[in-house]
Structures are given as structure tokens and as C-alpha cells.
Hints:
Elements: E1 5-9, H1 13-25, E2 29-33, H2 36-45, E3 49-55, H3 63-72, E4 79-83, H4 87-92, E5 100-104, H5 109-119
Parallel strand pairs: 1-2, 1-3, 3-4, 4-5
Helix pairs in contact: 2-3
Amino acid sequence: MSRGLVIFVEDEETLRKLGETILSRMGFEVSAHEDAESAFEKIKQNPNIVLLATDMSLPEMNGVNLAHKVRELGIQVPVLLMSGHDEADILEAGGVPPPGIMLQKPIGLAELRATVDSLLS
């Protein structure tokens, strides 16, 4: 049985496939996207997601903007923002809307699993 739908947004193909694999093995249905626009369209079609996991640096719209647009739809899903940027850059972009957390890249497998589990518990 699935633990629910996770939207995973990462523009680097290797990291996108890795994240998709890890989350699938954790029991989630995963919809992986290389850009925020396609992820946002998927969320509008299926708002019953359990987690938005997104990279900060994406083409066109960044991960913080995506998270805030999801909030504007009234969807209060936890947000996991993954970034190589420091926290000041994230705050300047608007910050991670609660409930949410930022993980600094590179992210270890155990750290990703623990963070996802704590966000959803």
C-alpha cells in the first residue's frame, strides 16, 4: 500500500532518478519533474499529495516560488527544500513555508529518509 503521492522536483537527471528511487522504496508513489511548472500542473490536477520535495535552483521558477504557489492553492502539504544555497539566499527568496524544512546539498540517504519521515509523522 502506498504512503501517498510525493512530488519530487530536481532538474539534474541523476539526482531526480535517485530521489525517485529512494522515495519509491520508502513506499511512496512518486511523480518526478525536472521543472517547477510541470510539477505545479501535476499538483493542480492531483492536490492530494503528502509531500513536495523540491530543489531550490530550477529553470524558470525556483523551489521556494513553487512552494508558495502551492500554498496559494490552499494546499498545506509539508515542503522539503533541497539546496546548495545557504539559508540567507532561501530567506531572501521568500523562505520555506511551514510546515517545511531545508536540507543542504549534498544530502545523504539516511538524512533524506529521516527528514521525510519526521516531516510526515
